[in-house]
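Below is a filled-in request sheet from our internal design queue. Each sheet records the structural input a requester submitted and the sequence that came back. We keep these sheets so that new team members can see what a complete request looks like end to end.

REQUESTER: design group, bay 2
PRIORITY: normal
MODE: inverse folding
CHAIN LENGTH: 283
BACKBONE (tokenized):
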């Protein structure tokens, strides 16, 4: 059911941004061997704060934000035994729409022995935005994926709430033709949904962190719960071959600090990696 105040339409106008990244193992170094892009998407030169095995990449959106009619397509392929951490240079902004939908499609392929850490910075969905994201991950045997999403509905610092528009977010993680995690979220903009306990419960921020690659012990679940000391609502759940954290609250720093603690726990437990906060987050 469409609960927007205007019909949702498709459009051929707007930006049609594309970004294709392919990583390969070159004698123990994870190299970005293919980088093709179409404005407004691009990627900074790779860097290696943890050594040559783990490639850090930062994605830029040079237009500054997404408007109705924009279509962004991102493709990441990690070839066997590669290790990459991909993030974004700044928060993503989804502007108010005039009735035209904006879309983002992310397609990720992680080959055997490879691991992708995908940590985009916060997405801010303006009141009146119409936006859909589809993210699909294909994991090979012995591949792993660790990611989060943090979404702010409305520019809450100025008192704005998400009471018009529509937001959809579909995530699928597959391995060898088997679905490991399917998550479909829909939030129509309205006062009722914003305040409903089954919607946002009056809180402007939601977050999800997911790890898929190996089973997680009850001890790690308990540690992740104990890291939490904020005011928002959180949940921690074991998946069949992974782990899921959820957040609903009012503070980006609150959820981000918790997610970072959980991320570092998973890093040490499953990837044998030390703490390494991307420098772009510290600006």
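RETURNED SEQUENCE:
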């Amino acid at each position: 059911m469409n609960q927007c105040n205007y019909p949702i339409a498709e459009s051929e106008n707007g930006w049609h941004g594309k970004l294709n990244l392919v990583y390969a193992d070159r004698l123990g170094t994870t190299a970005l061997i293919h980088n093709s892009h179409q404005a407004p998407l691009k990627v900074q030169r790779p860097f290696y704060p943890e050594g040559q095995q783990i490639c850090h990449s930062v994605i830029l959106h040079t237009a500054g934000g997404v408007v109705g009619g924009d279509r962004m397509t991102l493709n990441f392929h990690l070839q066997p035994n590669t290790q990459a951490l991909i993030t974004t240079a700044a928060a993503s902004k989804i502007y108010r729409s005039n009735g035209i939908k904006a879309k983002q499609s992310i397609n990720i392929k992680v080959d055997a022995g490879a691991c992708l850490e995908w940590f985009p910075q916060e997405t801010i969905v303006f009141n009146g935005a119409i936006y859909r994201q589809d993210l699909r991950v294909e994991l090979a045997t012995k591949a792993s994926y660790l990611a989060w999403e943090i979404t702010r509905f409305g520019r809450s610092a100025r008192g704005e709430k998400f009471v018009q528009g529509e937001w959809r977010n579909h995530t699928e993680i597959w391995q060898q033709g088997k679905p490991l995690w399917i998550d479909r979220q829909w939030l129509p903009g309205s006062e009722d949904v914003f305040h409903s306990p089954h919607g946002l419960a009056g809180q402007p921020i939601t977050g999800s962190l997911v790890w898929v690659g190996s089973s997680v012990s009850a001890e790690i679940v308990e540690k992740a719960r104990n890291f939490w000391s904020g005011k928002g609502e959180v949940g921690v759940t074991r998946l069949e071959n992974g782990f899921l954290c959820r957040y609903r609250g009012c503070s980006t720093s609150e959820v981000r600090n918790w997610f970072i603690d959980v991320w570092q726990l998973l890093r040490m437990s499953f990837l044998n990696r030390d703490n390494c906060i991307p420098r772009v987050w510290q600006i």
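SHEET NOTES:
- The two ends are 41 Å apart (CA to CA).
- Residues 1-7 have pLDDT under 50 and may be disordered.
FILED BY: M.R.
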